Amino acid sequence: MAETSIGERRWTRGAWLTVLAAGIFIALNLAHVAYRFSLPSLGWVVWDPDLDEGRGQFWLAANAVGAPSALQPGDVVTHLGEVNLGAYNALESELLPRPARWRAGERITVTVERQGQALVIEAPVVRWTWAAWWRTNLLDPRRLWEWVVTALLLGLVGYTLAHRPGNLAARFLFAFGVAQFSITLSDTLPDYLALATDPPGATSKALFGNIIFAYLLGPSFLGFALTFPRPKAWIQRQPRWLLAPFLLGASTIVLLALLPAYASIGFGLTFAMLVGGLGALLHSGVTQHDAISRAQLRWAIGGVSVGVSLFLLNILLFPGQPLYREWLGALASLGFPVMVLSLAMAILRYRLFDIDLIIRRTLIYSALTALLALTYFGLVIVLQGVVTGVGGARAEWVTVASTLAVAALFAPLRARVQTFIDRRFFRTKYNAAQALAEFAAAARDETDLHALTGHLIRIVQATMQPEHATVWLARRPADAVYPLEDRRPTQ
Length: 491
Description:
Layout: H1 2-8, H2 13-36, E1 44-46, E2 58-63, E3 76-80, E4 83-84, E5 107-114, E6 117-124, H3 130-137, H4 141-163, H5 168-186, H6 192-196, H7 199-227, H8 233-237, H9 244-258, H10 263-287, H11 291-317, H12 325-332, H13 335-348, H14 355-391, H15 397-424, H16 432-445, H17 449-463
Antiparallel strand pairs: 1-2, 2-3, 3-4, 3-5, 5-6
Helix pairs in contact: 2-5, 2-7, 4-5, 4-13, 5-7, 5-13, 7-9, 7-10, 9-10, 10-11, 11-12, 11-13, 14-15, 16-17
C-alpha cells in the first residue's frame, strides 16, 4: 500500500504530458473565443436555432453591447439583410452567405417575427466588447452560476491530479473536467448569428465541439472507469488498449469533418462510451472485494448515479414544466460537480468510509419524506372529501389537522424507518471502543474457549460485516517447551 501511494504521488512523464495537452487545448479554445470578438454582430445574445432537423431561426435574448435599435428580447430573426436565415442548417454545416452591409459600423435591415407579425427593423452592426462579455457572463445570475460550477469542477480535478499525478484514473478525471470547462468556455460568447455568417469561426466552433464530445468527454470517462480503482486485468496486461477510445474519437472527428451531415454519430459514440464507463464501474463493484476498493466504488457509483439523475431530471421535466426551466437548469448544472467531487474523494481516499453514513441517511430521509408526503396528501384528500360530502363546503381546518398529524408522526415514523433500513442494509451500528470493551470483558470472564470464539465471530460480523468470518486457532506441539514469556524460538 505504501509503495502504491508513493508511486501515485510521483510526477511522471504521462502526468506532465496530460497537463501540457490540457493547457494547449484551453489556450486554443481561448484564441477561438478571442477571434469571435472581431466578428460583425448585432450586439445581442443570440441563441442557437431550433435543431429538431438542424434548421430554424435565431432568437434574441438580451442586448449585450447596448447599441440602440428597435429590436426587442424575444424577437425571432428570420432575415439578415437580403439573406434568408431559414437556409441555415446547423447539422450539415451549411453556412450563410455574408450580407452586403454586414460590417462593423454599418447599418443593416433585420426582419424579425414578433407576436406573429413580421417587422423590418434597421439595426447597427457592431462588435462584441469585453464590457458586454462581462455583463453577459458575470452579472447574469444564471451565467455566473455556470462559471462558479465550472471553476469548482476544474479546481477539483486539478487538485486531484496534483495529489495523485501517478494515478491513471486521476489523469482521466482531469481530462474529463477540462472537457466540461471547455464547453463553458466555448459558449462564453453566445452570438451564434455572427458564427453562421463566418466560415472560419463556425468551423473552429464545430471543431472544438467535436473534439470536446468525441475525443475528450466520452473517452476520458471510459478510460477512468477502466482504471478505477485499479486497472482491469486485461488493461494491466495490455495498457495500449487505453488508447483505443481516443483513436476511435479521432476517427470520428475526421469522419464528421468529411461528412458533417452525420453529426449524430458523434453524439451516439459519446453516449455509448458513457454507458460503457458505467458498465465498467458496475463490473468493478461486483469483482472488487477488498474493503478500500469497495468503499471507493461506492463513492464513484453513488456520485455518478446522482449526477446522471440530475441530468435526467432536467431533461424529463423541461418540456412539461417551463416555469421551472431556470431552476431545473441550475439544479442540473450541479450534476458534473457532484459526480467529479465523489470521484475525486474516491481517488484521494478522503473520508472514504463516510459514504456508508451518507447512503444510510439518504435512504432514511428519502423514505421518510415520501411516507410523510403520502400521509399528508392522503389525509387532506380523505378528510376534505368527507367534510365536503357532509357539509358541502371545503374546510381550512383539514389542512391544519393534516399538518399537525404529520408533525406528530415525524419522530416515531423516523425511528421505524431507521430501524427497518438498519436491519435490511446496515445490520448493526456500533461504537468501536464499546465493541472492544465488551469483548475484553467477555475474554476476562469467559472460560469456555468455544463460547469465546463464538462471541468473537459475532462481534466481527456485527461491526465489520464481512461476507464470512472464521476463527483459526494455532495449536502448540505437545512436546514443545517455551520460556515463561511465551516467545517461540527464532529459526
